[in-house]
Design goal:
The protein is α/β, with parallel strands linked by helices. The chain is built from 11 helices and 7 strands. Strands 3-2-1-4-5-6-7 form a 7-stranded parallel β-sheet. The protein is globular and about 55 Å long.
Length: 239
């Protein structure tokens, strides 16, 4: 069994890290907008682009387009978009992991191989703090797999990349949970602030509220992660 994590929802608090970078840009340029407002608009445009993106489009391409549109939306200087996209990408090394993730991943790695499955370029993945926790050859990026979430092709390519091992994916965002489930991948939903399930999509059979519970949960499903539980939703909750 190989366990993959979503990079920018399950492992990394991307909103905190990205908002901090946008706040620095706003202060240096005298913008009236907060870092969170800017990040949220950029992130929304970026994710919208990912829904229809195909190779050879890169995550960098999508990020740049999203930033240009964000600047248009807010009436900011679009000529700075190239420069600011690079600054945003460089800042990724400072984006914080969720506090519960590092110890949990290290514990999981004692029993099984751990990677990531993410809509990013290889170079960007290597800059993240999460990359230090996984096996580099299991960095399953959109650049490597030639597709973007939530397109089922990226999940199918991930399964093929780790075959004959079985893939279990840890996801937090609604689109990732739904995309993985619709592609037929065993999926554990790791709940994160700001990420709610897709009400119209399939429901994960297993949810955890704290990554510290993942090693024990996964250890119990090494052979068949969801054997015998097709109609049961398992929730591990923290009191």
């Amino acid at each position: 069994m190989i366990v993959t994590f979503d990079l920018f929802s399950a492992m990394t608090n991307s909103r905190a890290g990205g908002s901090q970078m946008f706040a620095k840009l706003a202060r240096s340029r005298g913008w009236e907008y907060t870092g969170q407002v800017l990040f949220d608009r950029w992130d929304a445009h970026n994710k919208m682009g990912q829904r229809t993106a195909t190779a050879p489009t890169t995550f960098h391409d999508l990020s740049l387009r999203a930033l240009r549109q964000t600047y248009v939306d807010f009436g900011l200087d679009i000529s700075k978009a190239n420069e600011d996209t690079l600054a945003l990408e460089n800042s990724v090394s400072e984006w914080p992991l969720w506090p519960d993730i590092a110890d949990a991943v290290r514990e999981i790695a004692k029993r099984t191989r751990v990677g990531l499955l993410s809509n990013v370029d290889d170079r960007l993945a290597r800059r993240t703090q999460a990359f230090r926790l996984i096996e580099p050859e299991l960095a399953l990026t959109s650049q490597r797999l030639g597709a973007f979430k939530p397109n089922p092709e990226i999940y199918q390519a991930a399964v093929a990349a780790v075959a004959p091992e079985k893939l279990v994916h840890i996801a937090a965002s609604a689109r990732d949970v739904r995309g993985a489930l619709e592609a037929g991948i065993a999926t554990v939903r790791l709940t994160r602030p700001g990420h709610n399930p897709d009400a119209e999509g399939p429901k994960p059979r297993l949810e955890v509220e704290d990554a510290a519970d993942l090693p024990g949960v996964l250890a119990g499903f090494v052979t068949d992660p969801f054997g015998g539980s097709e109609n049961l939703l398992w929730r591990v909750r923290r009191e």
